[in-house]
Amino acid sequence: MTEDTDQDRGWRGSPDLWLNAAYEMLIDKGVDGVKIMPLATALNLSRTSFYWFFKDRKQLLSALLDRWEATTTAPLIAATDAYAATKSEAMLNVLATFIGPDGLDARLEYAVRNWAQQDANTMARVQAADAARLGALRALLERWGHTPDDADVRARTIYLVQIGYISMQSDEDISLRISRVPSYVEIYTDNRPTDGEMARFCAQIGTGTAALKHA
User: Fold this and answer.
1) Contact 49, 12 (CB under 8 A)
2) Do residues 134 and 77 make contact, with C-beta atoms less than 8 angstroms apart?
3) Phi, psi of 82 (to 5 degrees)
4) Do residues 16 and 54 make contact, with C-beta atoms less than 8 angstroms apart?
5) Which of 18, 40, 105, 123 has the fewest CB atoms found within 10 Å of its own CB?
């Protein structure tokens, strides 16, 4: 008598289990690799189990895009609304979403942007997200006294540089990147962060302050 497997017992997984597996497959192989049978094989589940949770592959891909928005656009917009005592601190809140481990999901951002190159509907969602993110950055800068035109240029400078890190898959050492943050903040806002603000920023992203000696 052979040992029962999860399939034999009728276990079908869960929506999150299938979605997590699809997430990893999207990261590793791109959207063309996100297919039902390979997912079932990876999970050691039957192909039919998938249909208990998702109508079809299209619905699964839509759920992946929902996750992308929740783990990229949402934290960035939240950071633009976070409390800050100074303009420098406000910008550090934004940069923490691009640098900190609990911020924007850079791997998923990269994968979705690649996906958008071959799918018009995904591209439309990416463009809508870009517009929302830029709008939030402009609003932050305007609240801190920048004119609309100036805020627009600065917002684009912030966003295109930080997304560039992701799109280029930069392997810049984290200490070097942090050491450049004060200069970035000064370029973006005209204000250089204080040592205390940088210390709090480093604590926020879970790293030490040793890199600041190079700033």
Assistant:
1) yes
2) no
3) -70, 155
4) no
5) 123
Q: What is the pLDDT of residue 188?
A: 98
pLDDT band for position 209 (cuts 50, 70, 90): low
Out of 1.25.40, 3.40.50, 1.10.12, 1.10.10, select the CATH number for domain 9-54: 1.10.10
Amino acid at 165: Y
Which of 13, 9, 24, 203 is CA-nearest to residue 96? 203
CA distances from 35 to 18, 26, 42, 113 (A): 11, 10, 11, 19
Q: In angstroms, rounded to a whole number, what is the distance separating the alpha carbons of residues 167 and 131?
A: 17
Q: Distance between CA atoms of 90 and 80, rounded to whole angstroms?
A: 7
pTM score? 0.89
Q: Please state the domain extents for the chain.
A: 9-54, 69-214
pLDDT at 207: 81
Q: pLDDT digits over 11-67, tens only?
A: 788 999 999 999 999 999 999 999 999 999 999 999 999 999 999 999 999 999 999
Alpha helices (H) in 10-56, listed in sequence order? 15-29, 36-43
Per the listing, tokens 């810049």 go with 172
The identity of residue 112, as a single letter, is V
